[in-house]
């Protein structure tokens, strides 16, 4: 079976304010095309784990594989490239660049990747916006649109480089039920139509129940 | 792999949306550089004017005959007293003439020398200016006026009449401005001068001479060499001073000492005559640079401050950029390019402001009796000050941008996103 993401014995300690063993021997994997969710109480280490998986946090022991390739120990500049190309990220708070237009926000990671011409990138970005039904907002300033729309723009941005996996840190945590439902159905559709792998940290039990697999965490361990 | 187009585009958007900070930071640089250019141009302009005030009136080499006692008194030649301890009381100067011995051959020799730009003879005579029953002591300098005008800037100091007027008149005199005022004389009037021996001559005032140095203007006047020779009753080879101007002022000292030995005359170079003067202008330059550097450093701190604030404001954006795959170096380049754009725009505007202010000062009337040739404040338009100004603008913005942008480079996106 092909794994898009795999971890072996990941341990992490917080040094401040006191030494604290936050992740204990985490080993698990996500299959290609799987829609998984991580649940757990506050402080169970689920977000910490997600940031390690996203390659942004490098301060841990153990091994992390992305597309069967060892990521652990790579240089920061290399990790940036991997993030850029392979990982799409959606945060709880939309986190768009407020001075740029919606279209520019979506295009930015692709411009950084620089594998396509500007015209192609723009075409792709419009395509993603259309898929999420927000193409009419393309030329608005990112600070001028509503919360639900911002989250959809953030999803479009996460998808622009056709990543191997989409990660979300409580992407619906800040949205009302209507918009949450909307975001969930977008994720579902991405999995079914595009075969995208997803890993979403959430508090929302209804959301988690409808995913393929729930990974429960407690006190830094994964419960089976 | 650095994608400059994306980086510059982000930098541009940041600068344009934060127009107020951008303008403030740029103006900081503009004022710093503008003030530097204005100050340095004005100060060095003044310095140069003051320098030339003295230097142009001093020949590169001045040859004359010093009245001094003999180095060896006659008794030293007496063999009988060879081993004795001789004491000579009240030594008098050696009996000699004031004129330079062989003055005209020396002059001819100098004029043929390739290093010499020109050499002019002078005859300095002590005279009295007669005004009714009042006698004013003073000098009358006999000169070859046209040659003098070519070699020195005496023309600038002739405030009424011209050098040509003096040359054309047999009994003409260029009267010192202070003397003219004292005796209430003007161009076209006559003045009587008396030699030390008591002979009185009437001279016609063809012009007024004002050097700007009151001590000179109150006693000194110029006349043709021949006129003064005639007044003194001396022959045409009677010359007391020879002023030499060289092509290269740096050869003055060496040449002065060789001339002195060769012709048995006293020859002093401009460097000896004005040693203390140079110290003064060095210190003035030092002050100019100290003030300028202070101004530029203050501008640098302004940029540092504003970039620092900008980076605090953009903390979330930085985290986002890093999360979506921009590296620390990319982020640093974004902020560095903002600093450099501010530095370049502010610096170029500063050069422009400095130039305009200099031009303004250059056109402000500045008339003083001491400086007859100066009508406006002096400004030194030296291209090097502009090159130094823009270089400093770029260097200081680079340094001021480096520290905050380096901080941005090291920001941990996880901490910002998780809000800890």
Automatic annotation (TrEMBL), chain A:
This protein's record includes keyword ATP-binding: yes
Gene Ontology cellular component annotations, sorted alphabetically: membrane protein complex
Alphabetic keyword roster: ATP-binding, Lipoprotein, Nucleotide-binding, Translocase, Transport
Positions of the ABC transporter domain: 5-223
Cited InterPro entries: AAA+_ATPase (IPR003593), ABC_transporter-like_ATP-bd (IPR003439), ABC_transporter-like_CS (IPR017871), MacB-like_ATP-bd (IPR017911), P-loop_NTPase (IPR027417)
Source species, domain of life: Bacteria
Gene3D superfamilies: P-loop containing nucleotide triphosphate hydrolases
Keyword Transport: yes
CDD domains registered for this protein in UniProt: ABC_MJ0796_LolCDE_FtsE
Any Pfam family: ABC_tran
Database matches in SUPFAM superfamilies: P-loop containing nucleoside triphosphate hydrolases
Signal sequence interval, chain numbering: none
Record-level Gene Ontology MF annotations: ATP binding; ATP hydrolysis activity; transmembrane transporter activity
Family named by the database record: Belongs to the ABC transporter superfamily. Macrolide exporter (TC 3.A.1.122) family.
Name the record gives this protein: Lipoprotein-releasing system ATP-binding protein
Organism: Arenibacter echinorum
TrEMBL record, chain B:
Gene Ontology cellular-component terms listed: plasma membrane protein complex
InterPro entries attached to this UniProt entry: ABC3_permease_C, Lipoprotein-release_system, MacB_PCD
Domain of life: Bacteria
Entry keyword set: Cell membrane, Lipoprotein, Membrane, Transmembrane, Transmembrane helix
Family: Belongs to the ABC-4 integral membrane protein family. LolC/E subfamily.
Organism: Arenibacter echinorum
Annotated MacB-like periplasmic core domain residues: 22-257
One GO process term, biological-process aspect: lipoprotein localization to outer membrane
Transmembrane stretches, start-end: 21-43, 286-312, 333-357, 383-403
Keyword Membrane: yes
Record PANTHER family: LIPOPROTEIN-RELEASING SYSTEM TRANSMEMBRANE PROTEIN LOLE
Location(s), subcellular: Cell membrane
The protein's name in its UniProt record: Lipoprotein-releasing system permease protein
Annotated ABC3 transporter permease C-terminal domain residues: 290-413
Topological relation to the membrane, as annotated: Multi-pass membrane protein
């Amino acid at each position: 079976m092909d794994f898009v993401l795999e971890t072996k014995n990941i341990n992490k300690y917080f040094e401040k304010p006191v030494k604290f063993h936050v992740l204990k021997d985490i080993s698990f994997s996500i299959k290609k095309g799987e829609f998984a969710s991580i649940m757990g109480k506050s402080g169970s280490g689920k977000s910490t784990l997600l940031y390690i998986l996203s390659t942004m946090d490098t301060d841990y022991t153990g091994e992390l594989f992305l597309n069967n390739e060892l990521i652990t120990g790579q240089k920061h500049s290399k990790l940036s490239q991997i993030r850029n190309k392979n990982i799409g990220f959606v945060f709880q708070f939309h986190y768009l660049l407020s001075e740029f237009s919606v279209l520019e926000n979506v295009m930015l990671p692709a411009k950084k990747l620089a594998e396509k011409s500007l015209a192609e990138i723009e075409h792709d970005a419009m395509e993603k916006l259309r898929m999420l039904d927000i193409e009419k907002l393309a030329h608005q300033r990112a600070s001028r649109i509503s919360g639900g729309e911002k989250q959809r723009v953030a999803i479009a941005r996460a998808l622009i480089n056709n990543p191997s996996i989409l990660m979300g840190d409580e992407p619906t945590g800040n949205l009302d039920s209507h918009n949450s439902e909307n975001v969930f159905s977008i994720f579902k559709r991405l999995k079914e139509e595009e075969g995208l792998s997803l890993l979403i940290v959430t508090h929302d039990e209804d959301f988690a129940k409808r995913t393929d697999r729930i990974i429960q965490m407690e006190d830094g361990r994964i419960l089976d | 792999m650095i994608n400059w187009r994306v980086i510059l585009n982000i930098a541009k958007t940041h600068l344009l949306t934060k127009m107020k900070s951008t303008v403030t930071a740029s103006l900081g640089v503009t004022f710093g550089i503008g003030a530097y250019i204005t100050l340095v141009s004005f100060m060095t302009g003044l310095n140069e004017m003051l320098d030339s005030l003295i230097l142009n009136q001093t020949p590169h080499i001045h040859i004359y005959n010093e009245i001094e006692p003999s180095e060896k008194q006659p008794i030293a030649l007496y063999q009988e007293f060879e081993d004795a301890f001789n004491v000579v009381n009240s030594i008098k100067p050696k009996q000699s003439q004031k004129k330079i011995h062989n003055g005209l051959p020396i002059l001819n020799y100098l004029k043929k020398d390739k290093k010499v730009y020109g050499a002019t003879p002078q005859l300095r005579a002590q005279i009295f200016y007669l005004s009714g029953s009042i006698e004013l002591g003073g000098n009358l300098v006999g000169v070859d006026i046209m040659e003098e005008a070519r070699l020195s800037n005496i023309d600038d100091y002739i405030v009424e009449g011209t050098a040509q007027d003096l040359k054309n008149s047999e009994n003409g005199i260029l009267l010192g401005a202070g003397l003219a005022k004292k005796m209430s004389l003007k161009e076209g009037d006559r003045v009587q001068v008396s030699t030390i021996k008591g002979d009185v001559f009437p001279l016609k005032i063809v012009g007024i001479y004002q050097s700007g140095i009151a001590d000179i203007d109150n006693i000194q006047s110029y006349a043709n060499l021949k006129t003064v020779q005639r007044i003194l009753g001396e022959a045409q080879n009677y010359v007391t001073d020879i002023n030499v101007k060289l092509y290269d002022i740096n050869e003055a000292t060496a040449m002065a000492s060789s001339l002195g030995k060769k012709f048995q005359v006293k020859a002093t170079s401009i460097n000896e005559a004005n040693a203390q003067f140079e110290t003064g202008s060095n210190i003035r330059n030092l002050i100019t640079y100290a003030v300028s550097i202070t101004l530029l450093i203050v501008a640098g701190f302004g940029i540092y401050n504003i970039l620092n604030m900008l980076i605090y404001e953009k903390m979330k954006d930085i985290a986002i950029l890093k999360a979506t795959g921009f590296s620390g170096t990319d982020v640093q380049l974004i902020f560095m390019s903002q600093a450099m754009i501010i530095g370049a725009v502010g610096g170029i505007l500063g050069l422009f402001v400095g130039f305009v202010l200099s031009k303004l000062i250059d056109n402000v009337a500045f008339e003083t009796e001491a400086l007859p040739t100066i009508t406006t404040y002096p400004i030194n338009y030296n291209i090097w000050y502009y090159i130094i100004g823009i270089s400093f603008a770029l260097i200081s913005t680079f340094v001021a941008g480096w520290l905050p942008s380096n901080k941005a480079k090291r920001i941990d996106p996880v901490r910002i996103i998780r809000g800890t």
